[in-house]
Amino acid sequence: MAPRPTRPALGARYDRRRAGVVERAARVFAERGYAETSVAELAEQLGLAAGALYHYFEGKEALLIAICDELTVPLLEPARALLDADRDPEATLRGLLRAWVGHVAEHRDHLRVFTQVRHVVDHGEEWRAVRRGRKDFERLLDEALARLAEGGQLALDPGLARSALLGMVNHTAQWYRPRGRFSPEEIADGYATTVLVAGRD
Amino acid sequence: MAPRPTRPALGARYDRRRAGVVERAARVFAERGYAETSVAELAEQLGLAAGALYHYFEGKEALLIAICDELTVPLLEPARALLDADRDPEATLRGLLRAWVGHVAEHRDHLRVFTQVRHVVDHGEEWRAVRRGRKDFERLLDEALARLAEGGQLALDPGLARSALLGMVNHTAQWYRPRGRFSPEEIADGYATTVLVAGRD
DNA sequence: TAGTCTACCGAACGAGCGTTCAATATTCGA
DNA sequence: TCGAATATTGAACGCTCGTTCGGTAGACTA
Question: What does pTM read for this prediction?
Answer without folding.
Answer: 0.96
